[in-house]
Sequence to fold (470 residues):
Amino acid sequence: IAMNRADVLEATGPTAGAHITVRIGATKDGKITAAEGRLIYEAGAYPGSPVSGGCQCMFAPYIVPNGYLEGIDVVVNRPKSAAYRAPGVPVAAFAVETVMDELCEKLSIDPLTFRELNAAKEGERRITGPLHGSVGMVETIQATQTGSHYTAPLNGKFRGRGVAAGFWGNGSGPASAIASVNPDGTVSLVEGSPDIGGTRASASMHVAEVLGIRAEDVKPSIGDTDSIGFTSNTGGSSVTFKTGWASYTAAQDIKQQMIERAASVWDVKPEDVEYEDGVIKHKSDGALTKTFQDMAAQLNATGGPIVGRATVNPRGQGASIAVHVVDVEIDPETGKVDILRYTAAQDVGQPIHPSYVEGQIQGAVVQGIGWALNEEYVLDDDGGMLNASFLDYRMPISLDVPPIETLLVTVPSPAHPYGARGVGEVPVIPPMAAIANAIYAATGVRMNELPMTPGRLQKAMAAKGVEAAG
Fold:
């Protein structure tokens, strides 16, 4: 099939358009008492919008004693909506976090103080029913409060600062891995999750950590359906958790086999042999010791190759929390929004590969900036796309964004051997609301429609009587 750009944009589908109504009540001292949300999501030509995700996550960063949620899936004559990073949640958070900002203003409470006062904690029940496991909302807020951005002065006309938070539950599922020890001391790892953000590196690091070898000595590859055991879909911020678990377990299998092989070569009991930091040694006889590389070179001559295998279905994955701060400057004559500074704090668990974690966060923020300010499908009455080219579909470019600052908050997940959490989806959730709140701080105009294009903002400012000279 040969598809042009218009075909691709129309056929792959947008995220769901939505109309969301939110109400939140709080006491005068800032404790949330109740919340209500009504979410109407556009499914496109066939049922199946991500309205459930919006309902599950929109109030989840907070303790809400009383709540009501209604989600409605609407079929319309438009392209079928498709999964888009954190499906269904960013627009729901846009509504909630905007109302939170309004509450803070009415109560004269600092936005982060208000969020900390109502922050979700382990053991508290979410509005949709499940209990929170280990969740780093308080720690992420505190990291933001003490960070250099939130405490920095912001001066100048038509400049404003906004904050917003987001929650994503993260996923898991079945995963498989096979790790083979090579005679040169390297390990060939085959796993089943396509690499969309550092999967091969993080899986390799799980194996290397268990075996006490260099990550560079693990050679990862991704098998297809016929060459690796079942591995569930690559999405939901699940891969490092589940495929990491599979890689870790396969490496543990290698470790145990290496102990048994050394015991056989030395003619001792396996329980008298230990493996530590890449070295196999007898617990009491210091003369009996081999490095992983030495043992690997002797495998074929002492019983044959060693292959570690794992199929897992881990549960208890920890949720992710993000808190974002953004400074903007508005051109009152055109309505153009310039992002001056952006900081994304996130509970990332124990980051396996910190620079990849930062890359996931930074990429999601830029995606969120595009969603907030420019990106949209413009459709005609027949459901055809009118801006189906990158000349007309306005995506952010490097000139649109400053360096994205990241604050990695470490609250290890107890359900993972190294404390990892999924990190890829939650950072796209807060940007729209954070930018909207910053626009309000700069202009006094509350935007409630996405994207907040120059034309829409200029029109809203004119209706409010905000002028360049005023």
Remarks:
- Residues 175-312 form a domain with the Aldehyde Oxidoreductase; domain 4 fold (CATH 3.30.365.10).
- The two ends are 56 Å apart (CA to CA).
- The longest helix spans residues 239-266.
- The longest strand covers residues 32-44.
